Amino acid sequence: MGQTDTRTGVATTHFDPPAGNVSDEDIHNYLGQSSSTAKVFANFMLGYCTTTTSTYCSNNVQTGYTAKDPNTVAAQAADLERRHIDGAILSWDGTGTSADSASLLFQSWEDNHACSSQGCKLTYLIMYNTASLNYNVKSTGVPGTSGKSCSGLTGMTYENCAVAHLRNDICYMNSAHWGSAAYERLNGQPVLQFFLYNSVIPTTGSAPSWDDVWLRVGTWLKDLPHNCGSAPYNADHGVPVMVFETASGFGEPSSSGGFYWIKPEGTSLSTDQYIYNITGTTGGTLDEFLSFALSNGGKFPFSGAFKGFNSIQANWGRGRIMDQQCGQTWVKSLNESKRYYSSGAPYVQISTWNDYNEGTEIETGIDNCYSVGASVSGSTLDWRLTSSKSAASLATVSHVEIYDSPDGINLTLLGTAPAALNGTWSLSTLPTGKHTLYVRMVGRNSILNRISPGVTYTN
Q: To 10 degrees, what angle do helices 70-82 and 98-113 make?
């Protein structure tokens, strides 16, 4: 069914389309002349579940699947691989949570299906959600750590709680995740992202502040095997690389890098809907992030890629919106890092694979607003792409394929044509008999492919 926003003035009404046939063109083709060095990761939300008593489950819109189900994880991981995406960034809520259960399923699938003695063709890493500091999570029992919630605390009491909670989860990650061959590493060190969602204490300045939190956590990490005490928490998997959100993340104490995250301007359909946060060097744009990344050359940037945003169904921040431009927002954001890095940014993070709450998912595919039609005139097949919206662009189309079928079921590829709004194909060389012909538009990576109705030809 997908998700729909029926408000008058919404440019992309069906902002999460029903699942369809999705292009698996190599996504690295967007990233530069020597794109083999760039890695593309998709961000995953892991809180989805199903229920028959509400339109929401655990505060999330219902997707029809449970995130921590082995079959769900297997299908998602296989689809990542099919689309040439290098791995998953898993939004993680702490030790012993359902998000951790789903993360361990990703690890198990990759260990068994994507990894060999030559390495892993699919990896994962954790994005630590600091909102989870308000949860009670499983304690490691390591001295100086705690799994207790920090909810309701303020000032230095909150900072001390946050530090102990972070240490608790870090010791656990060290034991359960960072030793896996499937876990993403930079220069031999495990990569750990932080999604900062907390304003209880100031961001900067002296204690209590988040600056002081990260200084204390960074110091703790430098001697992790000793600080995490006994087995299994005290393994030596290297000091983790800490990567923080947005351009300001490069300047966080103990930071080794930053990642871009989509942040729409607001809820106005007349103005905010058409602000795409890609170009321009101010206002939290992707350009601003990439420019800042270049000026911090010793740190690791995760560029961003996104299709748009619509949180009309969410239980928080409802109504924020950024139009998809019939897939152009997706293609433009993917291409943007080429303006700053000749082979693309070292890392690109897709936001997101499956956030249905905020309408950013690419899991079901992205509609580029084209349909395909075909007809036969004499011994010539005529085909055309018809757009339903003015924003439709051939920049979202990879190529066109022509198929022949003797029975309307089994298809034989006759040939391909470059992306164009219309074209012709000679049928004069087909064998004698009746044929059913189809024309397929193949989109850029993660764009929904479209195929024409069959047309008959007899010679």
A: 50
When pLDDT is averaged across residues 155-166 and rounded to a whole number, the result is 97
pLDDT in tens, 413-428: 999 999 999 999 999 9
Contacts of 390 (CB under 8 A, 6+ apart): none
- The answer to whether the CB of 103 falls within 8 A of the CB of 96 is no
Find the helix packing angle between 155-176 and 210-221, rounded to 10°.
30
**Number of helices (H) and strands (E), helices first, in the chain?**
7, 23
Q: How many CB atoms lie within 10 A of CB 136?
A: 14
Q: Where are the beta strands (DSSP E) in 3-131?
A: 39-44, 56-57, 60-61, 87-92, 115-116, 119-120, 123-129
pLDDT tens-place string over residues 162-220: 999 999 999 999 999 999 999 999 999 999 999 987 789 999 999 999 999 999 999 99
Q: Half-sphere exposure (CA, 13 Å, Cβ side) for 224?
A: 27
256-287 tens-digit pLDDT: 999 999 999 999 999 999 999 999 888 899 99
- The amino acid sitting at 68 is K
User: With pLDDT > 70 as the criterion, what percentage of the chain qualifies?
Assistant: 99
The model's pTM is 0.95
- Residue 131 in tokens: 């909102």
Average pLDDT over residues 400-415: 92
Q: Locate 454 and state its tokens.
A: 């069959």
Nearest to 350 by CA among 16, 42, 10: 42
Strands 39-44 and 347-350: what pairing?
Answer: parallel
Nearest residue to 363 via CA among 111, 26, 88: 88
Residue type at position 60: N
Element (H, E) at 65: none
**Which of 178, 98, 109, 177 is closest to 132 using CA atoms?**
98
What is the separation of C-alpha 315 from the centre of its chain, rounded to a whole number of angstroms?
21
Please tell me the predicted confidence (pLDDT) of residue 33. Answer: 67
DSSP per-residue codes, 250-305: GGSTT--EEE-------S-TTTGGG--SSSSSSSS-HHHHHHHHHTTTTSEEEEEE
Sign of CA dihedral 437, 438, 439, 444: negative
Residue 287, token pair as written in the block: 């350009």
The DSSP call for residue 248 is G
How far apart CA 359 and CA 322 sit, in angstroms, is 10
Burial environment of residue 7 by CB neighbours within 10 A (0 to 12, 13 to 18, 19 or more): exposed
